[in-house]
Amino acid sequence: MGMCLPCLGGAADDVVVTPDPETRRRQLAEAAEKRQKETAYRGVKNPEAVERKRKKQEEIEKQAMTTSVSGGGGLKWQVG
């Protein structure tokens, strides 16, 4: 009977302590963001370049919208 006690004593060391709910929530959120990034750039060799191109395109579109509203096409007439 005394032979079983040493192996039960080490069982307490194998127990995994669960983190508090806030830490667990943060870990789950980080994992979800990581999965979304991986699926968004699946098959893309250089995701940073894709992101730069997307931002540049958005800036061009934004600039086109502001110039078309205020300038009427960007043409300037000179009378003289």
Automatic annotation (TrEMBL):
GO BP terms: negative regulation of ERAD pathway; negative regulation of retrograde protein transport, ER to cytosol; negative regulation of VCP-NPL4-UFD1 AAA ATPase complex assembly; positive regulation of autophagy
Signal peptide from the UniProt entry: none
Region (Disordered): 28-80
GO cellular component: endoplasmic reticulum membrane
Presence of keyword tRNA-binding: no
One Pfam assignment: SVIP
Record's compositionally biased regions (Basic and acidic residues): 28-40, 48-62
Keywords noted in UniProt: Lipoprotein, Myristate, Palmitate
Start-end of Gly residues biased regions: 70-80
Record's protein name: Small VCP/p97-interacting protein
Organism (species): Crenichthys baileyi
